[in-house]
Amino acid sequence: MSIAQLQVVAKKLIESKNSLAFTGAGISVESGIPDFRSSGGLWEKFNPMEYATIDAFKRDPEKVWTMLREMDKVLEAADPNPAHSGLARLEELNLLSGVITQNIDNLHQEGGSQTVVEFHGNARRLVCIKCGQAVAAADARARWQEEFPPRCPNCQQIMKPDVVLFGEPIPAEASSLAMGMAQVASVMLVIGTSAVVAPASYIPVVAKKSGAFIVEINPEDTVLSQEIADLTVRGKAGELVPALVEQIESLLSK
Ligand code: APR
Questions:
Q1: 3-state secondary structure of 22
Q2: How many helices (H) and strands (E) does the chain have?
Q3: Which of 94, 95, 114, 254 is 20 to 30 Å from the Cα of 142, by its Cα?
């Protein structure tokens, strides 16, 4: 990471009338939540085709809940890190219209972001795939001693987290909101995503094709780095985002 790069991004955000952040699991790694595809990631431990598809859930919900309960423990213990609160600060400064996130950990909201598009849902809610009843995951968790996997209070079907499993559609409202925001953004911060899962991976491409300046914040190269990113800032989100906010605050104070 170079300060000069952050100063370029800071100026772009101050000049831009409409900036947007698009985030993936990498932004929550410094909150203690492993990402999916880096070494030690979740998919190294659990084959996503066996544990993270809607068909696998329907076939053997108890098996999928063994992975979900492990994920729940990690999510429960996680707090927002300076990258989450940094994006919330940019929103407070009216320099960010919001965050489109692939993450289901609720950390953007807990970090203070007001406009968060949950492209893959949110694990803080459980939903019944039969009757649509929703409950708070915290309420179900409190009863796990007596009832695991959690069952729908309405029809007794096993419930699932309100997250998009492979093979499920993206919630229509989140999809249209995200694509609409990407089409009008003039700057997009793409933070902590390998951008390999569609249709989420189209979002930075839509922004780019609509004329946005794309800034990639990631310790590693991704499929976006060559063709889509206009500026690749190599490093950890938990360090780079607060450093970016610092550059912006000092420019605004002049
Ligand atoms: N700061 C910034 N980026 C980081 C950090 C960090 N501290 N640590 C890791 N990364 C980067 C990795 O280099 C990688 O490019 O975050 C990215 C994480 O990529 P994935 O693990 O593939 O996560 P993500 O892109 O969010 O996956 C998309 O795939 O499995 C599905 O539904 C799941 O939403 C998820 C989707």
A1: strand
A2: 11, 9
A3: 114
Ligand 1 pocket, 237 CB below 6 A? yes
Residue for token digits 């559609």? 169
Query: Residue 195 Cα, ligand 1 centroid: separation in angstroms?
Result: 8
> 193 and 219 in contact (C-beta within 8 Å)?
no
- Give me the domains of the chain, ranges plus CATH numbers: 1-33+80-120+170-254 (3.40.50.1220), 35-77+123-163 (3.30.1600.10)
User: What contacts 179, CB < 8 A, 6 or more positions away?
Assistant: 202, 203, 206
For ligand 1, the distance from its centroid to the CA atom of residue 30, given in whole angstroms, is 12
Query: For this structure, is 84 an active site residue?
Result: no
The amino acid at 128: C
Q: CA nearest 46: which of 25, 67, 76, 73?
A: 67
In this structure, are residues 160 and 127 in contact, taking their beta carbons and an 8 Å threshold? yes
